[in-house]
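Sample entry (297 residues):
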Amino acid sequence: AEAEVSYRQADATGVQSVIGLPVGNPAGTYSRAGGRSSALSFMVNGMFDFGEDDGLQGFVGGGVGVARVKSYYGLDARGNFVDDSDTVFAWQAIAGLRAPITDSIDVSLKYRFFNADNLKFVGLGAVGATETRFRSHSILGGLTFNFGAPAEVVPAPEPTPEPAPVYTPAPEPTPVAPVVQCTPGPYIVFFDWDKSDITPEAASILDNAISNYQNCGNSQVMLAGHADRSGSASYNVGLSQRRADSVKGYLTSRGISGGVISTEAFGESRPRVDTADGVRELQNRRVEVTYGPGSGY
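Predicted structure, serialized as tokens:
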């Protein structure tokens, strides 16, 4: 539902009358007549939308309220034969189409029929009391800006694996000491929009990376910060640097020497998922952690 206040007016360019008009004018059609009707309305509308949220949508609806209608009409400069106003019940029907052109901007085309019946005006002379109505047809083009961050896409949960069949294993051979290998990554952590805070999910991934670092001696650690394309390029470079610095602070607080850690900010220049400019994409708001022999940006 929505509330609406609107104003509309129409100029008169002619009058057709079946009775005589003031100042000695007989019944007939007068092209020299002038005047104006206007309506100030206060409406409550109800709308029904259909169609995909990210595609072409249609909508229909209607509204009810009150309208203050004022009219004046005359044949010449000597005065108006109707000059009065009335407040009556009004209703309207609405239909249209809406389509997104970006994640935050929609365009729309709307048709509106407005009707106010049972208007009672008092005219001069033979005109007397007059009962009439005010109707209008409107076609409107619109441009809508949507505010707020879009809902984050929640990945579908992994299917629960079926239990393995129970069997009696063969005698195991004498165990051989495992060869310790360095796993260089990359370990990728993601960030909320326009944030550089370490989330609980990111902390879990970094804890795993720190555990694996124990097998890599004192290898160099490289941190590459990235951003999505929802801000300016220069702002995103600074934002991706702050994200890399947050990860560095987390690693050093858990025992990895800051002397072996280097950072670089790539801003929006190396997206993980290609998007249009201005799009917020979780997969592109990230820091990639690599280390060990052969690691790098």
